[in-house]
Amino acid sequence: MTTIRSCFFTFFLASLCAACGPADAPEAADTAGDAASDGIDLLVLGDFVVTMDPERRVIMNGAVAIDDGVILAVGDASELVSAYPAQKTLPGDGRVVMPGLVNGHSHAAMTVLRGVADDLALMDWLNNYIFPAEVAFVDGEFVRIGTELACWEMLRGGTTTFVDMYYYPDTIADVVDRCGMRALISATVIGQRSPDAEGAGDSITNGVGFIDRWQGRNPRITPIFGPHANYTLNAEQLAATRSAAIEHGVPISIHLSESPYEVQYSKDTYGTTSIHMLESIGFFDGPTIAAHVVWPTEDEIPILAEREVGVIHNPTSNMKIASGVAPITAMLAAGVRVGLGTDGAASNNDLDMWEEMRLAAFLQKVDRMDPEALPAIEVLSMATDGGARAIGLGDKIGSLEPGKQADLIQVVFDDVHHVPLYDVISHLVYVSDEQDVGAVVVDGQLLMLDGEFLTLDTARIATEARELAARIQRELTERNSD
């Protein structure tokens, strides 16, 4: 480690200092004095601390002081080490401290269906493969195993918060409760028979029960509604879901303007495009997280901005299913809140947010034929503070600032692909991958350190996932042979 550090952290120190500037005096929350006198829970050090605060500060040789799940101070490591005696300190040599990644759209349990149906158009994939497989195989045990597998994969890659839409939401919440992550968990509402409901009415009723059971129960878990799309629910069902969400004071997550099929379906059924249709029924009257948004029209983008809809860009999934290239730069220019997501592992086929960052940047550059489109700092924002704002948690997470929840990661810069280092932001977006994550902290709790998972039994999860997949494979083979 010492040799490698000297190669890129010391050799390029002068140029990096010019880019980052001197470390500011530690910024601290009002409660810092009391916590310091008693000893704080955790001090996380780093050769760089990428704050993603409004000033986009990058602090060299910095640290983050954490107590009772909250960030107390961010600043120079030597000053914080002196000011905040800690029960545990994470050394920072060769490491970058930054906010945890926010995955704004996922179907976590679909990790079990990874690779079960590839290279298909969206509606063929959904109607002929995924929906039938879900009715046949998805139950509470499937969801538990698949969600545990997804949490393992997301934590390994530095994702600390995710927005999920799947069935058996109580089971999902139980997994998140145990593993320590932060999540917005959608009770799926769909106008057809599904694994946990007979139709939209059942789905809404089940969702109300789920929200009643989990609202306020765990500060890391936000229960919400997840109406699937405007082509799997009619206008009355969509309006009823929004009414239930308003009554219970929760957001909604929905697939929106995802594909040419959806846009044409909306025109044929309602005489207008998807976003205009939802606006006409008051669907955006409450907080909305909209996944994909590949095909908004020029006059729909201002609606998204005015209604403060959080748009979640899913570049890998959109490319794999050939849904199209979302106009991300246009939405950002209009003031739309934009975050990043992986979608489910059945259409991605992984949950790697580093890959989503790279592809998001590259897609906009080649689509617009402009290499300056969506620069590294903007796409990093989409995965951190911007993503947090898009899902309605911008006041709690997404940046390293005193008073915010302590959701952060250490990224290890000691592998060959990080040599040499000129620009830490460039490396985070264009070089880093999920294998570089060395530590994950959520709500002040250390969940992963150097490949050791402290809240997940990964050996058991792998065994159960393989056994479940083998059973599914056997049954699919038997059905295909009949």
Task: Summarize the structure in words.
This protein is an alpha/beta fold. It folds into 2 domains: 2-100 and 400-450, Urease, subunit C, domain 1 (Roll); 101-390, Alpha-Beta Barrel (TIM Barrel), CATH 3.20.20. The chain has 19 helices and 18 strands. The chain has helices spanning 2-10, 13-20, 32-38, 77-83, 122-137, 140-156, 169-179, 200-214, 235-248, 260-270, 274-280, 301-306, 315-320, 328-333, 353-368, 376-383, 385-390, 424-430, 458-481, and strands at residues 27-28, 40-50, 58-67, 70-76, 86-90, 95-99, 101-106, 159-166, 182-189, 221-227, 252-256, 288-292, 310-313, 337-340, 408-412, 437-442, 445-449, 452-453. The strands form 3 sheets. Strands 1, 2, 3, 4, 5, 6, 15, 16, 17 and 18 form a 10-stranded mixed beta sheet that branches. The protein has a 4-stranded parallel beta sheet with strand order 7-8-9-10. A 4-stranded parallel beta sheet has the order 11-12-13-14.
In the predicted model, the low-confidence regions spanning at least 5 consecutive residues are 1-19
Strand content: 15-25%
Query: What structural category characterises the helix and strand content?
Result: alpha/beta
Number of domains: 2
Shape: globular
Biggest sheet character? 10 strands, mixed
Named CATH topology of the largest domain? TIM Barrel
Short description:
With 482 residues, this protein is α/β, with parallel strands linked by helices. The chain contains 19 helices and 18 strands. Residues 1-19 have low confidence and may be disordered.
